[in-house]
Design brief:
By secondary structure, this protein is an alpha+beta fold. The chain has a single domain, classed as Mannose-Binding Protein A, Chain A, CATH 3.10.100.10. It is about 15% helix and about 25% strand. It has one helix spanning about 10-25, and strands spanning about 5, 30-40, 45-50, 75-80, 85-90, 95, 100. Strands 2, 3, 4, 5 and 6 form a 5-stranded mixed β-sheet that branches. A two-stranded antiparallel ribbon has the order 1-7. Strand 2 (about 30-40) and strand 3 (about 45-50) form a beta hairpin.
């Protein structure tokens, strides 16, 4: 299949992802989805895991104060309950994920 974990690099990509996830709302539990974004290499400096690039687009939840997150919270997910905005949590949490294949 050759897909990769999603890292929304633009508002258009995030909007398309949100639209696709809204169509599955209620069928996937819980409605949290891993993204290809982490700060494991440098705390509080979130990058994409696949290519180590800085984020050109961000959609942090207002309740996600990324300057005050615990050191054990290094991975980013989209939260259905928060309108598909991003939150940070421990990388060991179990949740759904979103993959894509370019092209």
């Amino acid at each position: 299949m050759g897909g990769s974990l999603l890292a929304p690099v633009s508002e258009a990509m995030a909007t398309a992802t949100e639209a696709a996830l809204r169509r599955t709302k209620g069928t996937i539990h819980p409605g949290n989805f891993w993204l290809d974004i982490t700060d494991l290499l440098n705390p509080k400096d979130f990058i994409t895991m696949a290519d180590k690039k800085k984020l050109s687009y961000k959609d942090w939840s207002l309740s996600s104060n990324i300057t005050e997150i615990p050191d054990t919270h290094n991975c980013v997910y989209m939260s259905e309950a928060l309108g598909y905005q991003w939150m940070v949590t421990s990388c060991t949490d179990k949740m759904n994920f979103v993959c894509y294949k370019a092209g």
